[in-house]
Amino acid sequence: MKSMGRRLAGTAAIGAMVVALTAGTIGGAQAATVAAPNAAALRASIAGYPNEEITSAVALVGGTGGHWSGTSGTGDPATGRPVKADGRFRIGSISKVFTATVLLQLAAEHRVDLDGTVQQYLPHTLPDGYPDVTVRQLLNHTSGLPTGGDLGGDDGGEAWFAAHPGEHWSPQEVVAEAMTHPKEFMPGTAQEYNGTNYFVAGLVIEKVTGRSFAQEVTDRILRPVGLHHTSVPAADDTALPDPTAHAVLAVPRPDGGTTLADVTRQSPWPWAEGGMISTAPDLERFFSALLHGELLPPAQQAELFAVPDVPNFRNHNCPGDHACFSTALMRFSPAPGVEFWGKTGTRPGYSSGVFGTRDGSRDLVYSFTPTSRFGASFAAQYRVFTAAFDLPTG
């Protein structure tokens, strides 16, 4: 885990998407989302796989205008089997949306105070004398906590990961290592997307409830919403049952070529920060329920769309110099009056996203299997996003 920031490549690509979209004319994209999905455009947006960068794609569009689902590529380069539209994949940082939802539910139950501090809920987790960090600051990435990233000797490359797919660390180890580094900024004064926040958030959930993070997610979200193929696996559980497609990384060879290494089996050690497994239908069902207010009371629902009024601190995920993350979600406005909300996630061999209009009239789930650890390219995500929301491509 040389740098926690390396797991954010998918989100950074969406930040670039925002910049690109602002160059076009949206022309009523919000109103267009109630129309039927543009099947031809969506098919074209995931065409051309497999190639050297991406071996497969799955996309699902839902909302009041109807549903569309499609796949392309190969489910396993070694055998050529088809891609499964309803198979499982590793959702990476989309896990943060589940984590934040649980904490917001606990806040609604008055079991967690969003303005309460980490020092209050988790004594001795932060160094003595550390500035107060609130739960809300964890969730909206304004804590200033250090990113850490010196565990395990990970050099960030495909070869290292292919040789160590099962290596893992506990949440406590991740947080303790991060806290050996200096804080990024004073809490509440800026925003920097940072996975350390959600490891700490997961620990707050366990301390407050006296139950595991997996139990809380299962009982509060997975069972009530009917997400039968979504899970929070243990760090030593490397299995991925019934995958959409196998994850393969292009490992460099001495002769300058590459060999595809299958990393479908890997540790889901990022846990509350990025370790969950799901499917496109499950994620669409979850995100639709979330956007329609089925999981949170109104006061906590409003937190999902509350972006703090602070500067963007070395945050390549947000365009410009201002914050773009709320509690768990990312907001982007490609034109005045047009907003989309969502989250991306990347794990080695998997790169995914879930986005929607605030009113839930249209939502999108996609998942690619990139051969790079840094996730699917901006261009790949841009194509499926613009097709799903009927946006101009120029």
Question: Can you tag this structure with a few keywords?
Answer:
single chain; 394 residues; alpha+beta; Beta-lactamase; 6-stranded antiparallel beta sheet; two-stranded antiparallel sheet; 10 strands; disordered N terminus
CATH topology name: Beta-lactamase
**Order of SSEs:** HHHEEEHHHHHHHEEHEHHEEEEH
* CATH homologous superfamily grouping: DD-peptidase/beta-lactamase superfamily
Oligomer: single chain
Helical content (DSSP H or I, runs of 4+): 25-40%
List unreliable stretches of 5+ residues: 1-33
Q: For the terminal residues, how far apart are their CA atoms?
A: 38 Å
Major sheet details: 6 strands, antiparallel
Strands ordered across the widest β-sheet: 2-1-10-9-8-7
Global mean pLDDT: 90
Architecture in CATH?
3-Layer(aba) Sandwich
The value of Rg in angstroms is 20 Å
Summarize the entry for a quick read.
Helices cover 31% and strands 16% of the residues. It contains 14 helices and 10 strands. A 6-stranded antiparallel beta sheet has the order 2-1-10-9-8-7, sandwiched between helices.
